Amino acid sequence: MARINLLPWREARREQRRRHFLLALAAAAAVALGALFAGDRIIDRAIDRQLARNNHVGAQITLLDQRIAKIGELKLHREQLVERMKIIQDLQGNRSTSARVFDQLARTLPDGVYFTDVRMSGQTLSITGAAESNHRVSDLMRNLDASAWFDAPSLTEVKAAGADNADQVNVFQLTVHQTRPAMGEGGQ
Which residues form a coiled coil (predicted)? Predict the structure, then answer.
């Protein structure tokens, strides 16, 4: 005999397919939501790590800025110390120069001439004195010019002083530049 199925098998199959489809759709939605949640967590962690790195870099930059400022202060302090050392070395080097200048002034002083005032401004000496004659003043200027310690004597003023002819003296003012003799020259 022939079998006839009277059940609505097509509708049951359709219902089964629909359930499978909804189940697959729900699974896909769950996988998508899981992936979305996992991606969000991964991105949040990456952002947190980057913020931590940025904060660390910012802290290191602040530390380096402080060190740079301290280095600048140390450089300034060093320059001041070097400047002070240079001044001290110049003073030590010039200590004997004053004695040499006075020695050379005494050596260049001819007979019949004496100084009443010697002033030094920088490297220029201003000398005021008296001489028995103009010839003695000329000798003094020649001696100053010949000295290795002095250069460019310039006579500013010469005038006669004294009432009688026996005690007549010539008062003079001159300027001369102090120099340092080359090595080997004693200025003697």
Answer: none
